Amino acid sequence: MSTIPQSAGNSSNLSPLLAGLFPAGVVAVESREPGDPALLLPAEAAHLGRAVAKRVQEFAAGRLCVRRALHEYGIDQFPLRVAVDRQPVWPEGFVGSITHTAGLCAAVVAESRTIAAVGIDTEIVGHVTPDIWSTICVAREADWVNSLRPSVRAAAVTLIFSAKEAFYKCQYPLVAEWLDFHDVVIESESWGQRGQNAGPILIRATRRLRFEEHALLPIIGRYQFHEEFVSVGVALPQAANILVK
Q1: Distance CA 74, CA 111 (A)
Q2: DSSP state, 115?
Q3: Which residue from 200, 241, 243 is spatially nearest to 118, judged by alpha carbons?
Q4: Residue 210: phi, psi to the nearest 5?
C-alpha cells in the first residue's frame, strides 16, 4: 500500500480501531472534524445542490475519508459521485461504506477481489430514544434488552440499531433490496451480561432476503463501544460469496 503523505488539508486518518471490525484487507479511515467543502472535487461538489450546511460538512467529511482510504491503494483525486439511488459510485474493483454522526465520520474501502461487500455504521450511545425502540427491535431483541440492567438498555438498542444499519449498507450494493428493521434480528452473546465492549454479533434474517443468493445467513459482524460511540462492521469476503454461488 502507498505510504505517500495524504493531501494537504485532509484531516482524516487511518483508524486501526475501526479496521479491527473487518477482515484483513479493509482500510478504515476516520475524521473528527467537519468536512471542508472547499476540498471537494468539482464532480463531488456538483451533487450538493441546496443542501444545508450540516449536510454539506457531512458529505465533505465522508468524501475526504474515502479519499484518504483510496490513497492507501495508490488512487488519488478520484471523485466519489452519487448514483441515482443515492449510493456512492466506487472506483472499478473497489467496494466501500461511509458513516457519519455528530463528532465522527468514517469510511471503509476494500478491493472487490477480496471483499464482495462491506458496511460500517457508528452511532452515539443513547441517541436511539425509547419511543422508537419497538420500531427497531423484533420481539426476540426486545426480550433480550428487557433482560438487561436498565442502565445499559439504551446502549443495547443502539448496538442493535447500528448493526442493522451496517448490514443494510453491506447488502444493498449487492442486491438493491430495501430492508425494514424487522427483516433481520441481531444476536450478541458477548455483550450485556458480561459487559464486554467489543466482540462478534450474529445477523439473522426473519424472512427470505436477496442477500442469501450471495451468502449463507447468519452472517457475523463485529462491534466496538468507544468513547460515546458504538461502531459496527459487516463484511462479506469473496470466499463466502463464491461458496454460495
Answers
A1: 12
A2: E
A3: 241
A4: -60, -30
Q: Which residues contact 161 (CB under 8 A, 6 or more apart)?
A: 123, 128, 136, 181
Residue 203, beta-bridge partner list:
186, 219
| Three-state SS at 61 | helix
Radius of gyration of the chain from its Cα atoms, rounded to whole angstroms: 18
Q: Report the amino acid identity of residue 2.
A: S
The burial class, CB within 10 Å (0-12 / 13-18 / 19+), for 138 is: middle
Walk along the chain (245 residues) in steps of 10 and give the mean pLDDT of each run: 52 96 97 95 93 94 97 97 95 98 97 97 96 97 94 95 98 97 92 75 97 95 97 93 55
- Whole-prediction pTM value? 0.93
The whole-angstrom distance between residue 6's C-alpha and the CA centroid of its chain comes to 23
